[in-house]
Amino acid sequence: MKTIPKGxxxxxxxxxxxxxxxxxxxxxxxxxKKILEWAYERSKFHRSLYQGAGLEPGDIKSYEDxxxxxxxxxxxxxxxxxxxxxxxGDALCVPLEEVTEFRQTSxxxxxxxxxxxxxxxxEWWAExxxxxxxxxxxxxxxxxxxxxxxxxxxxxxxxxxxxxKVGCEVVPGxxxxxxxxxxxxxxxxxxxxxxxxxxxxxxADTARKKLGIDPARDLTIRKITCAGEPGASIPSTKxxxxxxxxxxxxxxxxxxxxxxxxxxxTAQPGGLHVNEALxxxxxxxxxxxxxxxxxxxxxxIVITALDRIAQPCIQFDSxxxxxxxxxxxxxxxxxxxxxxxxxxxxDDITKIKGVLVAPSAIEEVVRSIRGLSNEFExxxxxxxxxxxxxxxxxxxxxxxxxxEMILTQLKDQLRLKTNLGYNIEVHPYNSLxxxxxxxxxxxxxxxHG
Length: 449
Ligand SMILES: [Zn+2]
Known about the structure:
It is built from twelve helices and 22 strands. The protein is α/β, with parallel strands linked by helices.
């Protein structure tokens, strides 16, 4: 294990990021009790949830007790009536006039959830992102470009404020189109940027095709922070992004209702640190509900934001499935590491032809095949009684000569990694849809006939 020299400029918060786990636990339990009491006293939504389970805040005395607190799911937040006080309803814990931020979820399924934050909450958002940006090497010398349509979605707004907090120079690339953004990056010699994996790859394609710019050679971006999709934790997608930009690509994980709770550090330990200073994060066994502390065992991630006050996030069932890594990270942080990051959302895992498959597993295979473009689409339908999976791909123009070899490789790898056979459709290069923010590549049409 690499030892960090004393006084090295590695951590955003040197004290918290190296605190022994037992002391982190004590602090987390103390803060957990406080936020639970806060919500119980101020929000009808939380109080009736806890009363329904026969639980009072005083019942929570230890780290192990936390599991007794009922979970909140996104669907429950969605059902909170949009009234009194409009538009947030009774999960709001502060007077309406203290709310300074409106955001909403950008999830691909269901109606959006409204998320109010106070100014204190907003500073907390920036603090959470400052931990992650600092861990990814952002410093005062960086010029950070945000190729992001500033709107009601939170990701990258927080990144913007946090980059300023760290002391970087921040360039908002809001209303520009992709070509103008690339030219601005070139003109200003920006050193870092934040985007979804889909857009990181899309920008590189546009730069090469439309502008004759090779990002790895002609641009100065050397670190990229991803959000919104799991791509930066999918090895083949990460490799494509790093090669296209000649940059380090780092993942982060968060959600509108939760905050930015996990991040990759520059040591890239093959997973994401959870931010144990600002969140209490537990893995729960999917069957028994037991808290999993040991490495190598999968559980669902349940998260509490310890300092968020307007619409608290307490025991949130993230629907993500993960396991703890067994090795401490060489960066020296005591914050635990989620092995492989978060790629298997339990909501996204679906049964096809009787086999459980995660869309990220298909992505990992497609992006690992040289000669295929970055774009693909998966369409699951029902033919008679049987499931059918069509996989639409594009072959790069100068790889057409290797077509047979590429297709054989793709079929073999898919069979090996997902245990399924696919109808592979080769589409003309540049004909599949291109996306600017989150991509919709996986379409399951079975439920709709
Ligand atoms: Zn680390």
